[in-house]
Amino acid sequence: MALPTPGTEIEKKGQEALEPLWHVVLLDDDDHTYDYVIEMLCKLFFKTVEEALRHAIEVDTTGRTIVMTCERSAAEFARDQIHSYGADPRLPRSKGSMTAVLEPAA
User: Do residues 97 and 86 lie in contact, with contact meaning Cβ atoms separated by under 8 Å?
Assistant: First the structure.
């Protein structure tokens, strides 16, 4: 049995496994309703209504909630999806999307 040579698929998979993970953190504001947060998390992250409600409660009570942990490129895409979701039509004062940030996972 031959050993894999450098640059093979096995070596690449090992390197991918070492890529650092990032948290996508949704931040609280007063311009979006619980219904908005639940709807957004269900549509963008395929959360169940129950999971999304737990996140809505957490972001409201603590000011933040981690909605996803993944590799940086996927985390950036998820953050951008949150930023482009749009205003909450249920609140006239809502002028835009919620805010999300990336943080390294410990």
Answer: yes
Rg of the chain's alpha carbons, rounded to an integer? 18
CATH code given to domain 19-104:
3.30.1390.10
β-strands 21-27, 99-104: how paired?
antiparallel
Q: What are phi and psi of 23, to 5 degrees?
A: -90, 140
Q: From CA 57, how far away is CA 71, in angstroms rounded?
A: 26
Distances (CA, A) of 10 to 5, 17, 54: 9, 11, 39
Indicate the residue type of 21. L
Please, are residues 57 and 3 in contact by the beta-carbon 8 Å criterion?
no
Instruction: Label residue 106 by pLDDT band (50, 70, 90).
Output: confident
Q: What is the SS3 assignment for 47?
A: coil
Angle (deg, nearest 10), helices 34-45 and 49-62: 130
For 36-80, how does the pLDDT look when each residue is reduced to its tens digit (9 = 90+)?
999 999 999 999 999 999 999 999 999 999 999 999 999 999 999
